[in-house]
């Protein structure tokens, strides 16, 4: 009886998350549409392989496939005319032992890419705010 009336909800350590879709209809244009996203992911992947914190995860990966899926995913988040055909974030990163340090190294490299492409700071923040909630599906604690 005590269990049935316990008001404390169970705390779930991991649960499915979807990206928070932004409501800014111009964001997709700000990132240069599909062409811009392809260029962004090319630069981003080069940085991920150069950074010692992220290199171990990506050096033996199928970079072309990941870049194509990132273009789709970010396009969806920016409300562009795309469909994401990849796996869930939990599935894709399972067993990879991504820690907080690697996660923030990746976000930092992404910001460097966006700065290099002259994406306005407010637009960068919108996108990053939509992506970072996925960290709970990606980081292994
Ligand atoms: C918000 C942060 C992140 C996002 C949005 C993201 C997004 C993605 C996407 C869309 C894929 C392709 C999914 C698929 O394979 O079907 C992927 C795969 C992958 N991600 Fe992430 N990722 C993030 C963080 C990270 C971090 C921090 C690392 C490691 C440092 C990482 C390493 C990888 C690797 C190695 C793959 C390839 C997996 C495979 O081929 O089996 N990701 N990620």
Automatic annotation (TrEMBL):
Positions with a binding annotation for heme: 93
A Pfam family this chain is assigned to: Bac_globin
Residue ranges crossing the lipid bilayer per the database entry: none
Keyword Nucleus: no
Keyword Iron applies: yes
Keywords in alphabetical order: Heme, Iron, Metal-binding, Signal, Transport
Molecular-function GO term, any one: oxygen binding
Domain of life: Bacteria
Official protein name in the record: Group 1 truncated hemoglobin
């Amino acid at each position: 009886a005590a269990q049935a009336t316990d008001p404390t909800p169970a705390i779930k350590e991991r649960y499915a998350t979807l990206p928070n879709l932004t409501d800014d209809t111009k964001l997709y244009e700000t990132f240069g549409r599909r062409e811009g996203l392809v260029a962004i992911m090319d630069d981003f992947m080069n940085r991920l392989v150069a950074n010692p914190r992220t290199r171990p995860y990506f050096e033996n990966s199928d970079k072309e496939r990941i870049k194509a899926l990132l273009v789709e995913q970010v396009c969806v988040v920016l409300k562009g005319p795309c469909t994401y055909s990849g796996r869930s974030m939990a599935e894709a990163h399972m067993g990879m032992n991504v820690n907080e340090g690697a996660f923030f190294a990746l976000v930092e490299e992404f910001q460097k890419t966006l700065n290099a492409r002259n994406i306005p700071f407010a637009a960068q923040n919108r996108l990053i705010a939509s992506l970072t909630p996925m960290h709970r599906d990606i980081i292994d604690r």
